[in-house]
Amino acid sequence: MRLTTTAAVLTCLTACSGEVPNEQNNASDSQQSTTNLNVTFDVLFGGTDVGDLVIADNGTKMSVEYGFSNNGRGATSAETLLLSETGVPVSWSITGKTTFGNDVDEYFEIVDGKATWQSAAGTGQVSHDDNPLYIAQDPSPYAYYVYAKTVLDAGGKPYPALPAGEVSVTAKRQVNLTGNNGEMTATVYAVGGIDLDPTYVLMDSEQAFLGVLWPNAAILSKNLTGEDKRLRALAATLNSERFENIATNVTHTYDHPVRINNVRIFNPSLLALSPPASVVVTGDTITAVEPVQSAYTDAEVVIDGKGGTLVAGLYDMHGHVGDDQALLNVLAGVTGIRDMGNEDEVLNALIKKIDDGVLIGPRITKSGFIEGKSEYSAATGELVTSKEEALAQVRNYAEKGYWQIKIYNSMNGEWVPDIVTEAHKLGLRVAGHIPAFYRADQMIEGGYDELTHINQIMLGWVLAPEEDTRTLFRITGMKRFVDLDLSSDKVTHTLDLMVENNVVHDPTVVIHEYAMTGRNGVTNRAVVDYIDHMPISVQRSAKSAMLNVADDTEDAAYLAAFDKIMSTLSSMHERGIMLVPGTDMGGAFYLHRELELFEKIGMNPAEVLKRASFDMAQYLGHDDYGIIEAGKKADFFLVPGDPTRDLKAIKTISMVTTKGKFYFPTEVYPEFGIRPFTDIPSVTVPPIKTQ
Q1: Can you give 616-666 as a three-state secondary structure string?
Q2: pTM, rounded to two decimals
Q3: Residue 460 backbone phi and psi in degrees, to 5
Q4: S-S: 434 plus which of 5, 174, 426, 456, CB 3.0-4.6 Å?
Q5: What is the per-residue pLDDT for 376?
C-alpha cells in the first residue's frame, strides 16, 4: 500500500533537537527495543487508528501481518521473510489485497547466487555474486525498515537493489520521545532511491523498529501513539526542508525584464497560435507582446524559444495537494490547483510557503471538506454528526476564505438543501460526492453547483436504493455500466436536470481509466507516454492493476464500462454541460492524460487547452490568468512542439514561468529520479556593469 503524502508545512516542536544524530553516541536501551515476538503497531491516519501491523521476529525468520481500513477501503497483507546472516532478505513472500482490492501474490528468493522474483508487474531473474536488496512491489510499510536496516548494517553507503537502482539511507533527526514506558531517544531516517520521495523510518537507539512516518499518517508502536501528531509534523518538516532546498537551487529570478523570444502563443479566444513573437515579462506581469527580435540589448534577459509554443498555465480541478505534488505540478505546467479536501492547517501552511517563495507551487483554491460520521468516514476534513454541525462548518470555511464546500459519502442527504442555502448565502459554491443511498438527481434538486466524479452520477442509474457506496463498491459497482442504456429515461432525466440547473461536472476521467483498464503485467495506458522516464518503482507500479480483475468476463466488463463512461461524457459535452479537468491522482503528468481523454469525448486539442487554462481561470475568478497578453500575469509554459495539432506536446515542457520566477524542469527532475524530457533553453543574461 502507498500512503499518499498530504504534505504539511509545520515547525518541528521543541523536543526535536534539529541536529543530525551521531550514530556513535546512541546509547543502548533494551527496554525500548521492539524486535520481540508478536509486537503490534498502530496504523494511524490523521490521528485516527485505522489498522494494525503485527511483527513476529525470531532473528532469521520474520512474519508480518498488516491491515487497515479507511474511507471504505483498505489493504491487507501477510509476509514471510527469511534473512541471511547479514540481515538481507533471501526469501520474501507476500499475499493479500491492495487498497483497491487487487490481489497480491508476490515472492522473491535467492538460490545458488540467482535472484528470482514475481509480482503484479511481472517476473524477473538475475545472477548476483553479492547480496542484492529486493525492493518489493506490494509489501507492508515495514519493508522500509528492512531496507534501512540492511543499508545501515552494511555501512550506510547506497546499497544495490533489485530490480534496479540503489537504496540510500540518511539520518535526519534525533528526537526525544515520551512513551508509555518513559522517555527515549530515537532517530528518524530518510529512505530514498525507491519512490519519487523519501520515506521516513523511526528507530530506537539500538536501531530497532519504532515506526514509519508521513505528514498525514504514521505507523507507531503502541508505546508511542501519543507522539503521533508531533512525529507527523516532523515528517512534514523534513519534506518541507527537502523541497525548500530544491526551490533554492532551481528557482531563477532576474533583475532585468525577461524576453522569451521566437515563440508562438496559444490564443484561447481564437483557438489558434499567433505568428512568431516575443513576450516580455517584468516581475510577475506580461508587459509586452512584440515581434521576434533579431538583436538583443543589455537591458533584457533573453530566453530563446526556438519556435516553440507558449501556453497559459493549466489547472488541475481535483487535487489533494502536498509539497511534493506542488512542485511536480508546476514543472508539468499545472500552475493552478483546486484542492478538494485537506487538513486546514496543513493547506494554509503550504499556501503561505508557496506565496512567500520558500516552496515552489501553484495557486491553490481551497474546498472545505465536510463528511458525515459513520464507520466508513473519510479521515480528511471535518466530520459532523448533525445538520447544525454541518452548517457551523460551512460558516467556519467561509470565515477562512474557502472557495467552495465539498460534501462527501457519509453525509445525510436530507441536510444538503440547508447546507447549500447557507453556503450560497456566504458566497460559497457547493460540490461533492453523492451521499450514500441518494442519487445525483436529489443533489441537483438540493442545490449542488457541481457534481464530483463521473461514477458518482452513473451509479445512481444502476444501483438499488439500499446498496452502499461508502465502500469499495462505489468502484467495483461500475461493472454494471455494461448494461446501462444511455438513452433511457433515468439517464436523460439526470442530464436534463444538469442542463436546466447549470450544474458543472468534475469527472476525474483519468482515475477511472487507470482503475478500469489497468491490468497486471501491462503498463497502464494512462502513463505509457512517459513511464520510461520514471524511477523503476514507479514503472513497476504502472504495471500493477488498481482493481482485482477475477476473470475474462470481469475484464471485458470493466473495459466496456469505461467505454460507457466515455460515451456518457461525450453526451454531456454535446449538451453543453461544463466539464472541468481534474485528476484526483496528484495532477502533473496525470492531468496531461486527463486532457487527452477530454479530446476523446469530443473536443479538439485547442478546445482542450482553452478548457484547462482560460476557462478554468474564468471559472475560479482568476481574471489575470489563463491568457498570454500584455497586462496579464506571466503564468505560462514553453513546449517545443505545437499542442494545437498534437496534445501530447504538453508532455515535453522546457520552461515554466509563474509568480515572477522561471523554472527549467530538466534541472529539477533528477532530484526525483526522473529522466528529463527536453533540453534547457538558452538564456542570455546582460553582463554585470562595473563602476
Answers
A1: HHHHHCCCCCCCCCCCCECCEEEECCCCCCCHHHHHCCCEEEECCEEECHH
A2: 0.87
A3: -65, -20
A4: 456
A5: 85
